[in-house]
Write a sequence for this structure.
């Protein structure tokens, strides 16, 4: 288990270092972004994740591909998703997954991903701001996204004061999570 967690962390740091060295704007998203924010309050509350989600602009994709391939990743387009596998025997589920800024994750989503400009420098990489991350998690709203928001609620990163900061559809989803923290 420890080895699996360390491999994800190493993959995250190698990918973001390659993008930074190539001057490609990016933001860490998904479970690693949640972990970065959660760890500011309580490191023991951080959940492990098996993949790395990185938000980039579509116009920068050629530079992203070049940077990540130079760092040893292999590009694959699988089921409509651009991913970078980490060496022989690696699987899609533990790859670097690319999300495109200002585009929807799924066609039916009400909102698009945030832009990479909605990020802040963390200790080792650029990460989505808390506002952008919460909006994104409430937009995608799979069960794991709901759990991530619930974790942030439990730690006080998100509370009822956010309801007025969100569009009505996302505020309704947040209200549901505030009302039913156990699911």
């Amino acid at each position: 288990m420890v080895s699996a967690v360390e491999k994800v962390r190493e993959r995250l740091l190698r990918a973001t270092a390659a993008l930074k060295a190539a001057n490609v704007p990016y933001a860490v998203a998904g479970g690693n972004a949640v972990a970065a924010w959660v760890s500011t309050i309580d490191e023991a509350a951080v959940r492990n994740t098996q993949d790395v989600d990185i938000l980039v602009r579509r116009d920068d994709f050629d530079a992203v591909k070049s940077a990540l391939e130079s760092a040893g990743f292999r590009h694959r387009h699988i089921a409509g998703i651009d991913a970078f596998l980490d060496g022989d025997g690696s699987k899609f589920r533990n790859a670097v997954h690319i999300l495109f800024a200002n585009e929807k994750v799924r066609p039916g989503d009400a909102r698009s991903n945030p832009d990479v400009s909605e990020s802040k420098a963390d200790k080792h990489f650029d990460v989505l701001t808390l506002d952008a991350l919460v909006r994104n998690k409430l937009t995608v709203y799979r069960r794991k996204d709901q759990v991530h928001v619930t974790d942030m609620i439990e730690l006080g990163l998100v509370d009822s004061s956010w309801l007025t900061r969100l569009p009505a559809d996302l505020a309704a989803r947040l209200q549901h999570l505030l009302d039913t923290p156990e699911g």
Observations:
- The first helix runs from residue 2 to 21.
- DSSP finds six helices and seven strands in the chain.
- The CA atoms of residues 52 and 96 lie 5 Å apart.
